[in-house]
Amino acid sequence: MATAVMPKVFKNYINGEWVEARSGKAIENRNPADSNELVGMFPASSAEDANAAIDAAANAFEKWRLTPAPKRGEILYRAAEILTERKEDFAQDMTREMGKVLAETRGDVQEAIDMTYLMAGEGRRQFGQTTPSELPNKFAMSVRTPVGVNGFITPWNFPMAIPSWKIMPALICGNTVVIKPAEDTPLSTYNLIHVLAEAGLPPGVLNIVSGKGTVVGKAILESKGTQLISFTGSTEVGRIISEACAPTFKKCHLEMGGKNIIIVMDDANLDLAVDGAIWGGFGTSGQRCTAASRVAVQKKVYGEFVTKFAERAKALRVGNGLNAATDMGPCINEQQLKTVMSYVEIGKNEGAKLAAGGHRLQDGDMARGWFHEPTIFSDCDAKMRICQEEIFGPVVSVIPFDTLDDALAIANGVQYGLSAAIYTRNVNNAFRAQRDLQTGIVYVNAPTIGAETHLPFGGIKNTGNGHRESGEAALDFYSEWKTIYIDYSDRLQRAQIDNAD
Ligand code: NAD
């Protein structure tokens, strides 16, 4: 079972035991706001470690699937209570390992709490259908059944919330789990696993194996022991995951990249739209799949919007997220900072106008972190690379437009389809936009971020593959429908034949 005090050197959790990786190697987890700070050492596990975890999950499955769902729910309920008690500590840990400001890491933990309570309640729901049969003395119903061993591969930007979106519905449906957290942010996922172990999950039901995607992730994908894969991350890696699942027809759920947009109509409350663009564009330093990395503004209010938006961006205080005065933290790592800096050069070369920011911040203590100014490009053309590609950093492109039709064409003219928003006080504009935007999520008079756990979450086009996280929709992925017909007529009754006359 879980130990009460977590060491700085972390182990894998396999079959109810904290065990060292067979490789004996470790991955450093460093604070992106201060690379001198070593947050912890996490196992650089091998394929054998992953396979041991999959075996443990397979052995635990039979008993867990037969555990009444309300009992499974009680364990989740206890976990939600523990998460609530430790929310502040977990938020601090998360800010140290990934940089986003405390208000946001508290939100990340809260999302895990919300999801855990929600799915605890599903222990007493998971409703199926009962329906009349077309034949006499026959009963028809459908029930949810678990899928088996689930393998999860998760990203670093929501290191507790996203694992909870997968783990909680999986467990309540009766599946067992092996999760590989992101290399940059394993601690928050470990904190979640610790809590679930402490809440009383039986050994083997939930296992964590940290390490590289190309080693541990690959082993989870290739194992004959996993029947379901859920992945959140980049579209590029998602394609690899999809191909790896295809030969054995593993059930596969992909949540991938985004290039989300806020549309600002000339009848909008402009200050509210600026508030939304600041929060949507620079929250989590723009490192959200739902970040508003494009803002399209109707020409009549374009100049005023850009001026106000740039002023507000320049006033944002960038720094260590543990400091209550900080508005925006660092990029996750050096590589991501370099990507952001390269896109700033791309934007300049494409002829976009730099309206705010554009530089790395490295004065004083900031030199030890991966900080970048909140950056706005104005006068962008929707076809520019900075308006098409996911940058995943604090860079927003502003595009002028004439009509709502133009704005919708700009919005839909990207490969992704996760989230979109429109600011307008005209009900006709709002209804047309919610109908015609090609995204899984639409906001009216709110930014592109702010999903709630009891509604479906996910995207279309190159963002998703047709499944959804959260809410009841998640149950559809983590369970299989079984349809049951009970004939108590004591004679052969042939559907579609004996009831035809
Ligand atoms: P990433 O694709 O680089 O990595 C995601 C996970 O996949 C990590 O755990 C990584 O170790 C693993 N991985 C990498 N290569 C692998 C391979 N060959 N085989 C198996 N596993 C492999 O993504 P990231 O940088 O961690 O996260 C940022 C991306 O995630 C962005 O594109 C963002 O839009 C996306 N994201 C999407 C959502 C969503 O819900 N749509 C939510 C958050 C993040």
Keywords:
501 residues, alpha/beta, Aldehyde Dehydrogenase, Chain A, domain 1, Aldehyde Dehydrogenase, Chain A, domain 2, 2 domains, 7-stranded mixed beta sheet, 5-stranded parallel beta sheet, 15 helices, binds nicotinamide-adenine-dinucleotide
* Radius of gyration of CA atoms, rounded to a whole number: 24 Å
Provide the CATH top-level class of the largest domain: Alpha Beta
CATH third-tier fold name of the largest domain: Aldehyde Dehydrogenase, Chain A, domain 1
Helix content estimate = 25-40%
Broad structural category: alpha/beta
Shape: globular
Widest beta sheet: strand line-up: 14-17-18-13-12-20-21
The CATH architecture of the largest domain can be named as 3-Layer(aba) Sandwich
How far apart, in Å, are the first and last alpha carbons? 63 Å
Q: Work out the oligomeric state of the chains in this entry.
A: single chain
Main sheet characteristics: 7 strands, mixed
Task: Estimate the mean pLDDT confidence.
Answer: 97
Question: pLDDT under 50 segments (min length 5)?
Answer: 1-7
